[in-house]
Amino acid sequence: MNCKVTVRAKVNPTEELDKVIRAISNIFDYEELEIGDGYVEVTGDENSVLKLKEELKNRKIRDTANKMLFKGIENNKISFSLGKQAALVSVPNFVDSKMSALGELDVEIETDNPEVFIAWITHKEEDEE
């Protein structure tokens, strides 16, 4: 599964930078971290989403994830947002619009085949259904 993962979060004036970074790292591993003026951005590959994949399974939200991810397909990219506050406690909470109190983790996944990627990250084993 070849992909490039980018996660970007706005750092609000009332937030601590280390908490925003922790919210991201609770859900995603990353290879590179960029701290800019009012934002944090991380990038990585398919290994970056293994925590997310495991949380989708553990929390039994793969069907919801499947719908939200398919909704975010545009060409070879999948875009979606997770609530930053929920991520701070390691919960992947898909948000449909820009309405969470502290903002979102905006995620973009570039891959040759978005449908195959979504099938992989939301895959259910036969005996789990």
Describe the structure.
The chain has 129 residues and is of the alpha+beta class. The protein has one domain: Ribosomal protein L5 (50s Ribosomal Protein L5, Chain: A, 2-Layer Sandwich). Strands 1, 2, 3, 4, 5, 6 and 7 form a seven-stranded antiparallel sheet that branches. A hairpin with a 2-residue loop joins strand 2 and strand 3. The model has no long low-confidence stretch (mean pLDDT 92).
How do you describe this structure in short?
This protein is of the alpha+beta class and 129 residues long. The chain has five helices and seven strands, in the order βαββααββαββα. Helix 3 runs antiparallel to helix 5.
Helix and strand layout, with pairings?
Layout: E1 3-10, H1 17-27, E2 32-36, E3 39-44, H2 50-58, H3 62-71, E4 73-74, E5 77-83, H4 84-87, E6 94-95, E7 104-111, H5 114-121
Antiparallel strand pairs: 1-3, 1-7, 2-3, 4-5, 5-6, 5-7
